[in-house]
Write a structure and sequence with these properties.
The complex is a heterodimer of chains A (203) and B (149). Chain A contains eleven helices and no strands. Chain A has 203 residues and is an all-alpha fold. In chain A, helix 2 crosses helix 3, helix 5 packs parallel to helix 10 and helix 9 packs across helix 11. Classes of the chains: A mainly alpha (203), B mainly alpha (149).
Amino acid sequence: MDGPPDNLAAMTDEQLAGGAQNGDMRCFEEIVRRYQTILLRFVRRQFPNVPDTEDVVQEAFMKSYESIDRYQNRWPLRTWIFTLAYRVGITHARRAKTRTTSALPDYQADEGSTPAELAGAREPRRSLWDTARQVLNDDQYRALWLFYAEDLPISDISEVLGMSLVAVRTMLHRGRKKLTPYARRLKEISGENVAAPNIGDAT
Amino acid sequence: MSTDQAEHEILRDMLGKESRRELPEFSPPLHARIMRNIQECERVDTPQQWRLAPTWYGLAAAAALAIGVSLWAFSTMSNKVVPPSPVVSGPTHPVGPSVTPAYTDPETGITTAVADAQSGLNQERYAGLDSDANNLVNYAINQIDPLGQ
């Protein structure tokens, strides 16, 4: 077990994709190993109303395996995999939405509430990402997530979300403007052992 | 540092840290499940491809058949579009008994036949107008000569 795994670990994503295209299953398994947790986090954050996020991750890998021959390494593998996972997640989210709307998480049930109403949020400890989920729209939130959590460049974010570069830049700019006051407030009170300010505090 | 840059730095720091904290532990059962599913899918796919092969052959054969039928129909239609000119029989008029002159001299017969044919051609081509014009000119010339005398 010493030889091949070490070699695989040293290979770039794109080299692994090339190996998988040549039918080397170990290369694809290494891709799964690298992206399994990252995709799970991405799907959990982006599609919280989907009941089984592991199914989404599994389907995303299935689709990437089925279409690995069509992957062109002019795109980073990371972008390609996120794009597939995003599309699979969208499909699952739509199905989940048609099944039931009663199980939606609080941030969606609270859509349309004013910041003052949201100030009485039930969760005592909320992360900045949770706050972002409440104050940003879906596109702004996704763009910010891919930019700050996944470190994707703007060009790749536009590819994943299927938007123009200008649109992504606009999303990021507006998202930052909205979220920064909450982040500043959180920073100020972080010494008081409070995770995040209430929505109304920063407005 | 500009405002935008400051905002960017704050968010990058805080959101980056939070997202790193949220990264789940690597789950061997999930990994095994994904790989098992992929391998099962691969095993199922192979016979499916073979099962699909005859379908593709069938489709190709059906397409070839359709093209053949289309060509045949087209050629049939083409023949119908340009049919051989039908013999349209006009209204029948009573025709007097044709009198065939007895050509005793073959040379005269040939000359007469050529003249008839020529006349027929002219009749068809000019509807006899040229011969009418010719007759008119001859008549005019005949009228002028006596005046000159």
